[in-house]
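Morning!

This is the sequence you dropped in the shared folder:
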Amino acid sequence: MKRCIFYVFVLMAISACSETRKLSRTKPAFAPNIVVAHRGAFKKNKLPENSIASLQEAIRLGCTGSEFDVRMTADDSLVINHDPNYFSLPIEKTNYAALLTHTLSNGEKIPTLREYILAGINNNNRTRLVCEIKPSEISKERGQRIAEKVLALVKELRAAPMITYISFDYDMLKHMAALQPGTPMQYLDGNKTPEELKADGISGADYHYSVFKAHPDWIKRAKQNNIRLNAWTVNDAETMDWLIAEGFDFITTNEPELLLERAPQAPSAKGWKLVWNDEFDYRGLPDSSKWGYDVGGHGWGNHELQYYTKGDTNNVIVKNGRLTITAMRKQEGANSWTSTRLISKNKGDWQYGRIEVKAKLPDGRGMWPAIWMLPTDWAYGDWPASGEIDMMENVGFKPDSVYFSVHTKSFNHMIGTQKTRGISLPDNRTAYHVYAIEWDKDRIQFFCDDVQVHQFANTGKGFAEWPFDKRFHLLLNIAVGGDWGGQMGVDERLITGAMEVEYVRVYVNGEW
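The structure's back. C-alpha cells below.
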C-alpha cells in the first residue's frame, strides 16, 4: 500500500513538472505593428465576439494585441463576455452552470478566463492579450476582488508577460498598480491627463479617439511622460491614418485586416513626420492659429467674380468634422459673388515635404475650386517668377476632370508653357479624394488617392525653371468665373457651390 502511495506521488510530481514546463514562457516577441483586434478578430469571418475562435483569428492575422472582456459570475467564476448580460442572464447574479445552458453562435460555450488565457498562450508569443476587466455593477469592492482574482490566475498560469490590463475603473487600476507595480495597464475613460496617469502608476492612455482630437496636446504630453497611447474603437481609414501619423503605439479596431493593410502604406511608415495638420474636429470658424484670409474683390489677376470675405460663416464654417468653403451668389460692392480664400499661417509654410488634403469639390459651371501653394517670401520676384504649385484645380465646365500643375517664369499659362496634367475623376463632387504632393529638392510628385498622377523635375537650370527651393504656404479657395473657370460662363441657375475638406496634413522628412 505504501508503495502504491509513493508511485501516486511520483506521478503527481511528474505531472506538475510537465504542466510547469508547458506554462513556462519565453520573453514575447510581439508583432511589430499597432493593431489590437477589438474582442478578437471577429467581424470579417462572422465569428462571435470574445470567443476563442476570434482570439485565434487575431493571432493568425499577426495582430500585436487581441482585446477581451472579463466579468465574474455569482459563484466567482471568471468568464469572457462584453455585456453585463449573457442571453438575458445578468452575469454577476448568475452561477456559471446556468450560463452553460446557452452557447455562442459558433457552438462555443462562454469561455472562462482560464480557458481563454490557455488558448491565447498556446504556441503564441506575438499577440499580447489585452484584458479588459469590467467594473462590477454590484460594488467597487467586488471590482477590486475581481482584479485580484485575475492577477492571481495570470500568475498561476505564468502568463503575465503576455498580458496588458485595461479598465474604465480607475480605482481598480490603481489597486492593481499597488499590488503589482510596473504591470502594463491602460485607462479607458478619457478623463485623466497623462501626468495623472503617470503619478498613479498607470502606463497607458487607451481613450476613444475623439478624446485625443479634443485634447491634441495630450498626445505630446503622453509621449513626454512615457505614457503609451492607444485609441478605440477605430474602424475608418481616415482616423486610422491620423493616429498612425500621430505616432500612436496601438489602435484598437473591429477592422484589423484594414488596419494591417493601411499601416505599412501610411506616410509615417515611409519616413514622413507629421508637423502641421487640421482635422477640423471643432465647430465655428477655422482655427485662427492655423488659418488666415486673403480678402478682397479685385479679380486676383484672372478677372474672377467673387469677393473673398474674412471670417464670414456664410462662406466658411467648420462643423460635423469638416471644413466647408462656400461660394455664394451675393452682391458685395462690384462683385456678384462672395467666397473664402484661406491661407495657412503660423508655421504653416514649408520647404519640401508631403502635403495632403482630403476634399470633395463643388458642382456647377463657373465654379473654380483650388488646393494650391504660393511662395511665402517671393524671393525671385512677382508671379510667376517665384513659382506656384497647384495640388488640385477643377473647373465646373469640365466637371469630371481635375488638374495638377506648376507655374514658373519659364513654364506658366500666360505663355502657354505651364507643366500640367489632367485626369478623369468623375465622382470628385460626390466623394472625398486625397490630393497630395511629395516635394523635395529634385522633384514635385503629385498624387490622387496615393496614385502618382504627375511629376515635375528640377532641371538644374536655375530659378526660372525651378523656384521651388524656398518656403511655400497652402491656400484653399473657390473662385467663380474668371479667365479659366468662366470660359463657358457661369450657370445663371447656380446659387451656391461648396468645397468640403475633411483634413489637411503636412509631413516632413529628415531633409527638412
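Headline: The radius of gyration is 29 Å.

More detail when I'm at my desk.
O.
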